[in-house]
DNA sequence: GTCTATAGACCGATAGAC
DNA sequence: GTCTATCGGTCTATAGAC
């Protein structure tokens, strides 16, 4: 008995309502249909079973191909993971920095904080399966790819810290510990990928509003 | 090239300050010294590389034994993981339900909420390496063992929900959504195992107090 | 209780036909 | 671009000596 026990086949994963999210529309421009299909299949497999417990056969079966076909579209299993993780990190960072998101509710620090936390939270909920891979499968990356992702994460964290710091500086917020409070806000949005399911009592947007409200309570004067 | 790239040897892991925590004193009574040593080594390996990327050789090397020696002390690699995860879940649940913890600051709902959140948070910080395994390696368990752990988690969640609900019922807290708010509080304590390190700017107790304060802000009238 | 050696099974990636 | 077949390597777990 030399291997894994609690695995799920690609077919089971495709039918599992707990693995339903909006990630199939996430991938970069310029990728072919087969590549996108493989990424979507890989996301489900990695999220359900983990990177190391997922085989190239599992991923390929999810789109009805043989294991060898994967290597026509991606040079390695690790690069499938990297493509998923990089795309996810880039997409969410672009989204929260989008001017239309940033200023949707006004230009005061509280408006901005509310907007970016609601957006960041809703994004993780909408894409909770892909986001789970982005948050919890980074150990499958090579050292070089891991460093690239870390850079994106640092930029994201700095953006949120700055948003909090501005409200503290101009007196809109209380004199909180910016680093600690920002980390707590991001923890809420990140941890939801562990338990969130689409089709439950909270829509991504409702949860975003709720967590934005909690974030404002954390900095209330 | 049929295997992993970014792994760390047991010796590297033993010297890594990011993997220093208080888990070596965590194990059940009745276990021998070698068993405890193997569990401590396994915790470091699982936390750093993940369950599936960790080999029985890695675990055994951490205590200077050959790979075969592990099977004298544990019947399988999965049961090493189960012992770690079950012990962690039992220990933290026992701790937050301890009467001396519960009533340390008084018997009002706010006192109790502050006490249990501070304790739950500090426990996860003190044992952040083992806690990472408890939170993020559940997929390595067999279906039966996974269900046992889920039962412990449900009891823990119910305990915290009840603590919040009492304060809402007697008017100590605002009329919040108990389920959502409780989940947010636990998310803070759980997500810290992703980034927390001992020896940094926050001690486990300081972080516990800080998160207890945030929890009270979430339910403030 | 520890070791060396290895059985038995599986996986990532490649070769080569079509 | 997809397939079948398979290589080379690695893993969990066991056998058997000490």
UniProtKB/TrEMBL annotation, chains A, B:
Segments of the chain annotated as binding DNA: 55-74
Superkingdom to which the source organism belongs: Bacteria
Key words of the record: DNA-binding
One Pfam entry name: TetR_N
SUPFAM superfamilies assigned to the protein according to its UniProt record, in alphabetical order: Homeodomain-like, Tetracyclin repressor-like, C-terminal domain
Domain HTH tetR-type: 32-92
InterPro entries: DNA-bd_HTH_TetR-type_CS (IPR023772), Homeodomain-like_sf (IPR009057), HTH-type_TetR-like_transc_reg (IPR050109), HTH_TetR (IPR001647), KstR2_TetR_C (IPR041490), Tet_transcr_reg_TetR-rel_C_sf (IPR036271)
Protein name: TetR/AcrR family transcriptional regulator
Organism: Actinoallomurus oryzae
């Amino acid at each position: 008995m030399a291997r894994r026990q609690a695995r799920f086949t690609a077919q089971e994963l495709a039918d599992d309502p707990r693995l339903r999210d909006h990630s199939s529309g996430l991938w970069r421009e310029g990728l072919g249909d087969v590549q996108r299909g493989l990424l979507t299949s890989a996301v489900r497999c990695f999220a359900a079973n983990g990177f190391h417990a997922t085989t190239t056969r599992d991923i390929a079966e999810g789109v009805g191909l043989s294991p060898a076909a994967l290597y026509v579209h991606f040079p390695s299993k690790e690069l499938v993971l990297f493509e998923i993780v990089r795309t996810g990190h880039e997409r969410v960072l672009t989204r929260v920095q989008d001017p239309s998101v940033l200023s949707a509710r006004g230009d005061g620090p509280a408006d901005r904080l509310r907007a970016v936390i609601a957006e960041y939270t809703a994004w993780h909920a909408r894409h909770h399966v892909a986001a789970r891979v982005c948050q919890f499968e980074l150990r499958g990356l090579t050292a070089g790819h891991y460093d690239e992702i870390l850079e994106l994460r640092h930029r994201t964290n700095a953006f949120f810290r700055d948003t909090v710091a501005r409200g503290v500086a101009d007196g809109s917020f209380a004199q909180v510990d910016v680093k600690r409070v920002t980390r707590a806000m991001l923890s809420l949005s990140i941890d939801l990928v562990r338990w969130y399911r689409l089709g439950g009592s909270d829509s991504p947007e409702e949860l975003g509003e709720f967590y934005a409200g909690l974030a404002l309570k954390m900095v209330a004067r």
